[in-house]
Specification:
383 residues, alpha/beta, Arc Repressor Mutant, subunit A, 2 domains, nine-stranded mixed beta sheet, three-stranded antiparallel beta sheet, 17 strands, globular
């Protein structure tokens, strides 16, 4: 098997307050998170990951959360210095950090830039202050604009803004107004995704009133897509839009089934080797995670993926890409044959959900894009 590109994901699990829609492994900071102790644990975790990297360089690094910008710039610098001390890191590596636009968290973007972060992802979610309140966000629309201005002044020229649509009471016009407000700030990338009621969240237990129905959601999605295209953004994934040359390289590596090392509480990793492809996960509870790192305990047992698992997980990711995937991508990233792929594709093709062009590129049809979950489910072992 040809080894794919390698990324690094770092999970930083604390937020000022947990949002009612969030199902990520995030925890309220309370009186303050033990950030120094956590950075120490991350560095110990990185020591364990060195062998998995082998001779490969790390092409992208993503600091996700939680709210990574709760960590001070000098702590982020210590972390990134620790990465470069332990691994080969490409000279042009994309290094992303998520940040919330509240005044507490986003106070020192210049410090993060000096620490080595070269791409900032700002969790705006909406420019409608009433909608932000319903979402449980702690910032205002003015805070978003201020955060972007500070990031620009700090030298960030690669900037993503996260937005959600289908918010409680949101109309098509309101959703498009959010996109226009974001575009006016000139981000190189927009992540625009639908609010969903995930299990084990407050919104799942107590759904907010006024959520758009399925037909309205589809109209919002179509109207927003048309607007974003007119504003010069290209859709390259279900919820990702970028200026030319500004796709998120880290996420593209995920979607094309690349490899990624994982450190931090609850972080998930995937590594390929001559033996096949394995996934692993670190302890989710931050305290348990830090204790495991401090005591040298085994953390994150690996699970070797079967051919059925490989097929489903590849499709779960690659089918999100607007341009589909090359047949050679599947063969190289899974170690499975083109014959295996053809057999897996037989039923989705018959249902009109996916098609192959003359260049051996597989891409969902319009029907497959509209019913993407159904298309992905075709590759489940029991389907």
């Amino acid at each position: 098997m040809k080894l794919p590109p390698l990324s690094l994901y770092v999970h930083m699990p604390w937020c000022v307050r947990k949002c009612p829609y969030c199902d990520f492994n995030s925890h309220s900071a309370g009186d303050g998170a033990p950030t120094k102790r956590y950075i120490d644990a991350l560095l110990a975790d990185l020591d364990r990951e060195v062998a998995s990297a082998g001779d490969r360089s790390i092409e992208t690094i993503f600091l996700g959360g939680g709210t990574p910008s709760l960590f001070a710039p000098d702590e982020v610098a210590r972390l990134l210095d620790g990465v470069t001390e332990r691994f080969k890191v490409s000279a042009d590596a994309e290094i992303t950090m998520e940040a919330n636009p509240g005044t507490v968290e986003c106070a020192a973007p210049a410090g993060y830039r000096d620490a080595g972060v070269n791409r900032l992802s700002i969790g705006a979610q909406s420019f409608d202050d009433d909608a932000l309140q319903k979402l449980g966000r702690i910032h205002s629309s003015d805070d978003i604009r201020r955060a972007v201005a500070e990031a620009r002044a700090a030298g960030f020229d690669n900037l993503n803004i996260d937005l959600m649509h289908c918010l409680p009471g949101q109309t098509v016009a309101a959703a498009c107004a959010d996109l226009r407000s974001a575009a006016e700030l000139g981000p190189t990338h927009l992540s625009w995704y639908q609010l969903t009621l995930e299990p084990n969240t407050v919104f799942h237990a107590r759904p907010p009133e006024g959520l758009p129905d399925e037909d309205t959601a589809w109209v919002i999605q179509d109207a927003g897509a048309e607007l974003l295209c007119s504003l010069g953004y290209e859709q390259y994934e279900v919820s990702a839009w970028a200026r030319e040359g500004r796709r998120c390289r880290h996420n593209v590596n995920y979607w094309l089934f690349g490899d990624y090392l994982a450190v931090g509480a609850g972080a998930h990793g995937k590594i390929s080797s001559p033996r096949g492809v394995a996934r692993y996960r670190k302890p989710a509870n931050p305290l348990q995670y830090m204790l495991a790192m401090e005591q040298g305990d085994e953390a994150g047992a690996r699970e070797q993926l079967s051919s059925d698992d490989l097929t489903f997980e590849f499709m779960l990711n690659a089918l999100r890409l607007s341009g589909g995937f090359r047949e050679t991508d599947f063969v190289e990233r899974t170690g499975l044959s083109d014959v295996h792929l053809a057999a897996a594709m037989r039923r989705p093709v018959e249902k009109g959900l996916i098609e192959r062009d003359e260049h051996a590129i597989w891409c969902p049809t319009d029907l497959g894009r509209r019913f993407l979950n159904d298309l992905q489910a075709e590759f489940l072992r029991d389907s």
